[in-house]
Amino acid sequence: AQRVTQPEKLLSVFKGAPVELKCNYSYSGSPELFWYVQYSRQRLQLLLRHISRESIKGFTADLNKGETSFHLKKPFAQEEDSAMYYCALKSTNKLIFGTGTLLAVQP
Amino acid sequence: DGGITQSPKYLFRKEGQNVTLSCEQNLNHDAMYWYRQDPGQGLRLIYYSQIVNDFQKGDIAEGYSVSREKKESFPLTVTSAQKNPTAFYLCASTPKWGGQYSPLHFGNGTRLTVT
User: Fold this and answer.
1) CB-based contact, B10 to chain A, within 8 Å
2) Which run of H or E residues covers position A36?
3) Inter-chain touch B101–A100, beta carbons under 8 Å
4) Do B40 and A99 lie within an 8 Å CB cutoff?
5) What is the CA radius of gyration of chain A?
6) Do A86 and B42 touch (CB under 8 A)?
7) Looking at beta carbons, which residues of chain B come within 8 Å of A45?
8) Most buried of A28, A43, A106, B98 (most Cβ within 10 A)?
9) Burial of residue B70, with CB atoms counted within 10 A of its CB: 0-12 exposed, 13-18 middle, 19 or more buried
10) For chain A (length 107 residues), average pLDDT per consecutive 10?
11) In sequence order, what are the beta bridge partners of B32?
């Protein structure tokens, strides 16, 4: 079955601390994975995709096929990073989302 | 200003009544989607449409219906058969599914409360 698992509902860190938001997936074939973010009072939007191997707002995510993971990382958290983060897997005709992790960055 | 518009932002209904949520896009996108967002459950796909006059059920289609008579519009009806309709509903679109991925563009959502 195709599935995305985000084990943490809430991740609370202090400003300047490293951040790692976990995402594991289940998919037969070559997966395409994404991170979406929803800031307070804003629309859900794409943060980054694994194919691009890009860094957006200091965030990176590496696809690890051996561990079936796509964890989102940032070395130094900022208060403006506080938001809801969703990991998503591209399926045949749709995106499958995880349950989301709320990141709270404390001053 | 191109984008996706969902209306209304808040909707209240009595149990047993059908209600229709509006989703309009002026992005000229072919594919449109309806997701339901519940705390702790993430986004779950209700229905999607890849082309006008065609749509498919998602993972939780029971109690919902849609139509796609125009490219820019994809209304969702929450029927009285939906057992737990109170939720936050998100509409999204993308130029065309398949091939080179284009990200989903989301609306601001409609919060439906049924009492």
Assistant:
1) no
2) strand A33-38
3) no
4) yes
5) 13
6) yes
7) 103, 106
8) A43
9) exposed
10) 93 97 93 93 90 86 92 97 96 88 96
11) B49, B93
Vertex B107: Cα angle to B7 and B88 (nearest 5): 70
Residue B48 has φ and ψ, to the nearest 5°, of: -145, 160
Would you state the structure tokens that stand for residue A106, as one six-digit string? 């404390």
**Cα B16–chain centre separation:** 20
A94 vs B contacts (CB less than 8 Å): 33, 45, 48, 58, 97
CA distance A6 to A79: 22
- Each of the 115 residues of chain B gets a pLDDT tens digit; together they read 569 999 999 999 998 899 999 999 999 999 999 999 998 888 999 999 999 999 999 999 999 999 999 999 999 999 988 889 999 999 999 987 665 667 889 999 999 999 8
The nearest CA of chain A is from the CA of B36 a distance in Å of: 11
| Nearest in space to A21 (alpha carbons), one of A60, A55, A79, A64 | A60
CB B14 within 8 A of CB B67: no
The token pair that represents A92 in the structure block = 């045949």
Q: What is the mean pLDDT of chain A?
A: 93
